[in-house]
TrEMBL record:
Gene3D superfamilies: Aldolase class I. Its main location: cytoplasm. This is Fructose-6-phosphate aldolase. Keywords: Lyase, Schiff base. GO terms for molecular function: lyase activity. CDD domains: Transaldolase_FSA. InterPro entries: Aldolase_TIM, TAL/FSA, Transaldolase_AS, TSA/FSA_arc/bac. It comes from Ohessyouella blattaphilus. PANTHER family: TRANSALDOLASE (PTHR10683), TRANSALDOLASE C (PTHR10683:SF28). It is found in: Cytoplasm. It comes from the Bacteria. Its EC number is 4.1.2.-.
Amino acid sequence: MKIVLDSANVEKIKAGLEIYQVLGVTTNPTILTKEKRDFFPLITEIREVIGDKDFHIQVTGSTCEEMVREAGAITACVGKETFIKVPTNEEGLKTIKTLKEKGYKVTATAIYQVSQGVMAGIAGADYVAPYYNRMCNEGIAAADSIRQMASLFKEHNLGTKIIVASLKNADQVLQSFAGGAYAVTTTPELYREMVESALITETVGRFKEDWEALYGNKRIYE
Ligand code: E4P
């Protein structure tokens, strides 16, 4: 079970790295729009902040040739170990195959169907990224799809890992892991929700009050 930060906000990434045991960072063009910054300086700064942790960056071209050129420009900037996120359609499969032949790391993204995941796995993708909440919005059984993908990858010894994206609540995260996902990627806000609530705050506060009633300002480390 690994967690990844789905964000391009440098301050949020820095804060997330201090709290959570994260595998890395994922971005997409929609996430980048929130930052309103030039692309290359932004990904350079994120790479500096995360060091050698995994970094997944999406291409935007519509042809294999464009996406391969984008992959070259991205990795020239932030390193060849960066995962190139490629949408999983026919042109994307061609791109995944080409990028793998050239030694790139690849994350197949925009996955709504088990069949996409399987085709991306066969093409050699390192990761597939099913979109949990977007699947739910389309009436697709996300948890079952993830479970089926995980079981097929295992049964056929594909090295492809599942990183579930588009997660909107803790239950979706837990269902992803229960279904065999290797990793999930979501916002720092959702990770916070997973461990912070009024109930937890109240409980921790009560322990502090009880300690102080007994020992006043004395600290354990004194
Ligand atoms: C990962 O980077 C995915 O693109 C992202 O999680 C999609 O999330 P959304 O459905 O909230 O846009």
